[in-house]
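Re: your question about ABC transporter ATP-binding protein

S., sorry for the slow reply, the queue was backed up all week. Below is exactly what I fed in.
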Amino acid sequence: MIHLEHVTKEFAPKRGLFDVSFSVEPGMVFGFIGPNGAGKSTAIRQLMGLIRADSGHATIGGYDCWNQTEDVKRIVGYLPGEINLPGDFTGEQILHLMQKLHHSKPERQLELLERFPFETKTKIRKMSKGMKQKLALVGCFMKDAPVYLLDEPTSGLDPLMQERFLALIDEERQQGKAILMSSHHFPEMEKSCDRAALIKEGRLIIEADIHELVRSSRKQYTIEFGLGAHAEQFARQIGSERMQNQVSFVTTKQLTLNQVIRFLTEYDVRTIHSSADDLEHVFLHYYSEEESP
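Result:
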């Protein structure tokens, strides 16, 4: 449904997109993960036909994102990363305008306002960031489109609204929608995405099933020894540092867990604690690998 093929858009060295390819199929939530300036928003703007690629090809629903941008916009619900709406309009006026523009059902709007409630009669310029984000979410999803492009969708939302958003995303996925979601909020991506791509300086580092990404990460362990001397000796053995009777380390290809266990048979070990796998560890793992000489 969503396809980028070798798309390049260069603004400056290491700024833009460079030979980026990925696909999002119906019924899939695809996470686009990276820090600010990595190229996430550029990719989404390319898909929306807001900028033209230097090379490569992008389509949504078979429509060319640049040459058939009106057809693309007709089938896409778009949530930009920065919400810019007329300050003197009220939320009610904005939603009425969107409803007429997209021919959306009033029932859909009411249902979404129950999920993401805010004072619709407030003027945009008086709204908090969270209120603007809820207004944008309602406006985006009331279109009931087959494709959604969401740029930092939970920015400004409180934890309750974030959970409601994730529940909505799951419902939309089950209805066969194709969803591309950019974020650097790792827990929500891990909960909601089927696949993910990590991007740095406009280039994809890796793309994989979200659970495979987590499983492939390096894991951190902390071992508590009965004797400080044992902790010091073990730390020297694996090239790590100790803090009193504890030694922390990260498994690698050169230092596997099996090797560590063999070493530990020589010592008085009190506890072994492993950090929970999460997407943030994966992100840091691949970024640190990229930066290694």
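Residues 220-276 form one domain. The two ends are 38 Å apart (CA to CA).

Happy to talk it through on Thursday.
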